[in-house]
Amino acid sequence: MPGSAHHLLEFVQHLINGLYLGGTYALIALGYTMVYGVLRLINFAHGDVVMVGAYVALFAAAGLHAPAPAPWYQTLLIFLLAMAACALLGMLIERVAYRPLRQAPRLAALITAIGVSVLLENGGQLPWVFGSQPRSVPELVPRVNILPTAWGLSVTPIELVTIGVTLALMVALQMLVQRTRIGKAMRACSMDREAAYLMGIPVNRVILVTFALGSALAAAAGMLIAVKTGQAHAFMGLMLGLKAFVAAVVGGIGSIPGAMVGGFSLGMIEEMVAGYGFSSWRDAIAFVLLILILLVRPTGIMGRAVPEKV
Amino acid sequence: MAHLELDKATIRFGGLTAVSEVDLEVRPGELVGLIGPNGAGKTTVFNLITGVYAPSAGEIRFEGRPIQGLPPHRIAALGIARTFQNIHLFQSLSVLDNVRVGRHVRARSSLLQGLFLTRGSLGDEAEIEAASRRLLNVFALEDEWNWRAGSLPYGDQRRLEIARALATEPRLLLLDEPAAGTNPQEKDALMQLIRRVRTEFGVSVLLIEHDMQVVMGICERIYVLDYGKVIAVGRPEEIRNDPRVIEAYLGEAV
Questions:
Q1: What pTM was estimated for this model as a whole?
Q2: So what's the ipTM on this one?
Q3: How many domains is chain A partitioned into structurally?
């Protein structure tokens, strides 16, 4: 094979991988950005909701005796179960951990978020919860190359499904936020919570819905990642959550399109850096990017500077 | 029967009694002013009525029903709407969407039904949109319906805030310094608008205002607040000549 064609193929491979990786980051980043939008809170427990989503999918697959690969309707059912369970978990976390601190200084809520994260990670390791050993996740969607080996490219169904599902969920979320009443109520709350309250918007319910949506997206990401990597463990949400948080900040925290742009950018950059000879930098690059963006454009790519109200 | 009644309403923040045993009533269809020097507790009274704060003591009744301690969105649903001293529009929503958000409280289907696009919620949406556009017509904002609220000129933003408040279909409208920052011509237009709103929308109005020309010009009765206490109440001409009021304003021409 001529050298230039080889380089092109390699580049295309990294593009595909970057798209897959970026999609998962974007899905998780959306939850950070939505919650930040309505509460000005960085919900550090969000990454761990991803982990719970992966486990719920794992248990649901076991409960349904799903074969590997599973028929599409079974996969869909497992997917929806994971999303629904995490939506409930997200609302529970909001109700129990954050709502009592609504009037407290923001630092108190932030520390509580870290506390919830530690609780989920370590509670998850208990033998009667998820256990401390990684669990293998059945191959609900095949993770084998579907292209002829001679092409020198690898594309798996789970990657395609992930990219497709990510894009579909983003379109759905965008429609919901722009078109529906609850979406408008969410935007109103994020712009001026006090005025929203006084205009008759049930702010607490809107906040609950925001957590439910963000957590459902996190669960979707968790299941897709677990099926792709073939395993789930109690700390899998830690690095994912941090990187998605970086993606949200890079895109402009509080902005939904920003989270999408930030997620895909981070995934693509990470893949390119790791793919072209700096694979040991894979995890570090996200944080290098975070520092750079905070220096150059602290509001993120799509973020707007909000003057502090006085 | 009084429309709105404050019965010895009191709120303390730590050692500070911001509002002390305030008795106040607004009768149906009445246009009532609430004035007083800076820091007298006027906006705090609004915050008590709308549920931002719960009173430490005393009672607040709306149409005969105690409302103190209810959350703000419930009080809005009961029929009290307000505007703000510093404009609190949803800056990056469109003009139409600002009014639409105000109308949601009157929708019959729940927010979650809206999520699943049930027939009821779609009907609601159409109704909300039509009613919101009618409202923009009344306030001469129909051509700007697609503008970002934050990009409107100041005077238009003030009018939009009143339109948004009326979208909740209130029976009592609280206006917090509607004339703040407006020029003399705008002031006259504003006074006409407030009178018109009262008759066309059938609301009673309680307004806080520093501009004496506006207060004396449109209010039927005026309450004067100083250090959290009502020091005088009466018709404009009575207030103008009340020695306690003149003293509170320290010689300012009233």
A1: 0.87
A2: 0.79
A3: 1
